[in-house]
Every structure is written in C-alpha cells, then in structure tokens.
Design goal:
Blueprint (H helix, E strand, L loop, with lengths): L12 E3 L5 E3 L19 E6 L8 E6 L26 E3 L2 H8 L3 H12 L8 E3 L30 H7 L1
C-alpha cells in the first residue's frame, strides 16, 4: 500500500475520442485531491469539472451580503435545517464490480482510495443493488419459485458472492 499523498496529484487526462477528457488511474499513479479544509465563515470552496477539461478544480470565493445582482440572488439561512446529510457515495453494480476486478491489485487499491480515502473524494456510503439491474450481464433474481413466500428457494448468485458480498 502506498503512503497517503501529502498534497493533491494532478489528473492524468486521457482523451478517448468522445469529446471529453477522463482522469486515468493505473497501478502506478492515480490523481488525488488536496486535503479538504472547511472554509472560513462567509466564504466558500467550489470544485468544478467540465467537458473542457477541468477535473475537480478548486476555487474559493466569499459571499457578499445584500449584493444587488440582477441575474442571481441567493439567500442563505444557516440557522434553518431541512435535512441531515448522512454522507455521499455511489453504487457498486455488477458492471462496476466487473470493471474493478479486471484491474491489477495495485490499480484496484488506487481506484478505491480515490473514492473512499481522505486523499480522494471521501465517499462513506455504498449502495449495493439486490439481484440484477440494467448494469448486469444477465438477468437474475433471488427467489424464482412462484408463491415461495417463506423464501425456501432463496439463493444468492455467483455475482453476489464473487462481486458484492
């Protein structure tokens, strides 16, 4: 396992001919972010990606109180809370697992660190779909016996034991 990055490493941008760039991660290199630090009160940090080539490009700004801008107005009431965010993450579908497993162990480690570690985007949640989805290579369920309400025929599949569990 490589030591954590002290600072961000830039995107190794590759153009695969579809009109936008992607950051390529390999067994020897994967881009990382600078450590995320909360901004001072009254300021914000913005991360931007674009088709033109920006990849989580960091910029800072400050809120202007009572500014009169005709095309944009944002009212921010920090005392009013509507919901609690538990975290951020993604889904490990069959196709995602197949692609991750096709990488070398070192590339898998780089990729997973880029999602879940402090040097990456710090995902802390993962959704694992039950049975097949439109990202599976075949259709399958867990209980194919009609009327089996007691789930006597319930069975995990190879996709579950090899890629999800």
């Amino acid at each position: 396992r490589s030591p954590p990055a002290a600072g961000g490493r830039p995107c190794n941008a590759k153009d695969f001919g579809h009109g936008s760039l992607v950051c390529a991660c390999s067994a020897t290199y994967c881009d990382t972010l600078d450590p995320v630090v909360l901004p001072a009160p009254g300021t914000y940090v913005k991360y931007e990606s674009s088709k033109a080539g920006k990849r989580l490009e960091r910029s800072e700004g400050s809120f202007q109180h009572n500014a009169k801008t005709p095309d944009f107005h944002l009212t921010l009431d920090t005392a009013q809370r509507y919901q609690k965010v538990k975290g951020f993450g993604g889904s490990v579908t069959d196709s995602a697992a197949i692609n991750i497993q096709s990488l070398s162990k070192d590339a898998q480690n780089h990729l997973l660190r880029s999602y879940f570690s402090e040097e990456g985007i710090e995902y802390n949640l993962v959704r694992v779909p039950m049975a097949s989805t439109d990202f599976s290579v075949r259709l399958y369920t867990y209980a194919d016996a009609e009327g089996d309400f007691e789930l006597k025929h319930f069975n995990l599949t190879e996709e579950d034991t090899r890629m999800k569990v």
